[in-house]
From TrEMBL:
One CC-aspect GO term: plasma membrane
Official protein name in the record: 4Fe-4S dicluster domain-containing protein
Superkingdom of this protein's organism: Bacteria
UniProt key word Metal-binding: yes
Family matches, as SUPFAM superfamilies: alpha-helical ferredoxin (SSF46548)
The keyword Phosphoprotein is annotated on this UniProt entry: no
Keywords: Iron, Iron-sulfur, Metal-binding
Molecular function GO labels: iron-sulfur cluster binding; metal ion binding
One Pfam family named in its UniProt record: Fer4_8
Residues annotated as transmembrane: none
Span of domain 4Fe-4S ferredoxin-type: 14-44
Annotated source species: Porcincola intestinalis
Length: 130
C-alpha cells in the first residue's frame, strides 16, 4: 500500500466508522443484499479488501455504484460491521477525488427513466452530494 492509499484508507475508515477487524466472513451481508448479482466485489469481501489494503480495487469496483443504500446488510450483520457504510465510505472517497468532474444535478434529467419515482432521485442526490 502506497502512502497515498494509506491516507485514503484512513479517510474511508473515518467516514464509515467501521472496524473491519470485527468481520468473521460469515457472508450474511451478501446473502441478504438485493444488488448482489450485479456487484463485482461482494459486500462480505469489502472488510477483507480494506484490511489487506486493496484500496484501489475497492475504488474501481462497480459495487460502489450498484449499492442501493438499503442498509439490509447493516441490519443482518451479527458483528455490527456495517459493510454498507464501508461501501458508502469508498464511494464518498472516489467522489471527493474526482472533485469537479463528477456528475452534476443538471446532467441527470436527460439520463433518467421518466417512470422513475422522484423520491429516488432526491434520495440519490442527497447521498451523492457530500
Ligand atoms: S460484514 Fe458482517 S455479515 Fe458480512 S461477512 Fe462480515 S461479519 Fe458477516
Ligand atoms: S446497503 Fe448496499 S451492500 Fe448493503 S444490502 Fe443494501 S444494496 Fe447491498
Amino acid at each position: 500500500m502506497t502512502p497515498d492509499e494509506r491516507l485514503i484508507r484512513d479517510e474511508i475508515l473515518t467516514i464509515s466508522e467501521v472496524d473491519v477487524t470485527k468481520c468473521m466472513h460469515c457472508g450474511k451481508c451478501s446473502a441478504s443484499c438485493p444488488a448482489y448479482d450485479v456487484m463485482d466485489i461482494k459486500p462480505h469481501q469489502f472488510p477483507s479488501y480494506m484490511a489487506h489494503g486493496e484500496i484501489r480495487e475497492l475504488m474501481n469496483s462497480t459495487t460502489i455504484w450498484e449499492c442501493l443504500g438499503c442498509s439490509t446488510c447493516i441490519e443482518r450483520c451479527p458483528r455490527n460491521v456495517k459493510p454498507g457504510k464501508l461501501i458508502d465510505g469508498v464511494r464518498q472517497a472516489v467522489i471527493r477525488q474526482r472533485g469537479g468532474s463528477h456528475l452534476y444535478p443538471e446532467q441527470i434529467p436527460a439520463m433518467v427513466d421518466p417512470q422513475m419515482p422522484q423520491q429516488l432521485l432526491v434520495s440519490v442526490l442527497r447521498r451523492e452530494r457530500k
